[in-house]
Amino acid sequence: MSRGLFIGGAWVEPEGGFYDVLDPATEGTVGPAPEASQDQVQAACAAAREALGSWSRTAPEERAAILGRAADLIRDRLVPYVELAQAETGATTGTARAMQVGVAAARFRRYSRVEPAEWAIAPQINEAGPMGKAGVMGALAVRQPVGVVACISSYNNPWANAAGKIAPALAMGNTVVVKPAPQDPLSVYRMAEALAEAGVPPGVVNVVSGASAEVGEAVVAAPDVDMVSFTGSTAVGRRIAEVCGREMKRQLMELGGKGAALVLGDADIASAVSGIGTTFSFYSGQICTAPTRVLAHRSVYDRLVEQLAAYASRLKVGNPREPDTVVGPVISAAHRDRVESYVELGRKEGAVVVAGGERPGADVGFYITPTLLADCTNDMRVAREEIFGPVVCVIPFEEEEEGIALANDTDYGLIDYVWSRDVARAFRIARRLRAGGVGVNTVGRNMEAPFGGFKKSGVGRDVGSYALHAYSEVQSIVWPG
């Protein structure tokens, strides 16, 4: 399946050989993935640097047309791409189709729409003085590409996450070196293949993969790299930021989350259960935006816990290729062990396991039963640390101010949620939450809204037009009127 690394528009034999990519549902081998050497990482970055000049001068309309053709190619190959995504990630068929490959195609289509890269600034009228005669100064603000962008994507969605970085970066005239997650890099190579077929010139898109951390570290530290766009854990993001800080490289970091869901006494409980319940199923809880920390008003606490437990117990866990499966596997055996250790830690800390907590009976596959931990407190590790699995903690509160304080008492701040029938009240509370996004009576997303986190959940914003800003520098051009 793998033809090697993709460097400078060519498929290159990896100097580190190949390693096996495993199917989380069957534990079988999906295919071999290439292991780049540090010299090959440098070669990929150099190829991106060499291609930058001509690509950045390519007309925005031409760049947009290429992205549009890439979107069409991905749509045309939806079935094999979905099968590959499902094999690599363990996603259910609906998730792989709609939220992985489907979103990737939509993101390339979104950035095939040309937007103004410059805008006028109101003229400044200067009176005569020590600096010269009276006059009018015109000005223009112009978006310029940052340069070579290292795109380091996460394992939970190799299609949508990588496309969300590559598409706006290319639209703004940058070139990219993509380092996919080691667990599921094959999908990203197919994406590069589609981009090349769509007309992306050699060197504009490069892909280097590897199971070892040294590959990603080499990409981040490469002298030819001007910016790093990373999605992953806060711990890794902190190390990347240290390297970027030494060289003043631009950063876009989408890191961990521990989303608080405030369920007020007047909430629509059925709606809250449906929204919070997505944590049990969507990507098997492997998503940073999940409402994993539920803060329930004491008046609805017992009812909410009872309904969440019933919701979790109804979900079918198993083979993601079967149409009635709701919860597929997590990405690896090591991650399954990690999530299970948190459930056991919750028990030791005093939480009550009211649903799940046991491994399902499958003979193969990295499955976890959706788990609900009740009677938690906000100082428990299960309530403070990102578990990244189908585990939800419920914490009671008495007064509105206490609920807001609990929501903000966290190192993270990616997305929080508020459920209340009083929409004005919900919006007022939302404005007080220290999170980059707040869902009011929904876990849905507006795909043009800026996305990113406060505190240790990241640096910067992307999605929609905000991604075009993220992957560009603003240059001022001034002249006398």
Automatic annotation (TrEMBL):
Source taxon at top rank: Bacteria
Pfam families reported in the protein's UniProt record: Aldedh
Keyword Heme: no
InterPro entries associated with the record: Ald_DH/histidinol_DH, Ald_DH_C, Ald_DH_N, Aldehyde_DH_dom
GO molecular function annotations of the record: oxidoreductase activity, acting on the aldehyde or oxo group of donors, NAD or NADP as acceptor
Keywords: Oxidoreductase
Domain Aldehyde dehydrogenase: 11-477
Protein family per UniProt: Belongs to the aldehyde dehydrogenase family.
Protein name: Betaine aldehyde dehydrogenase
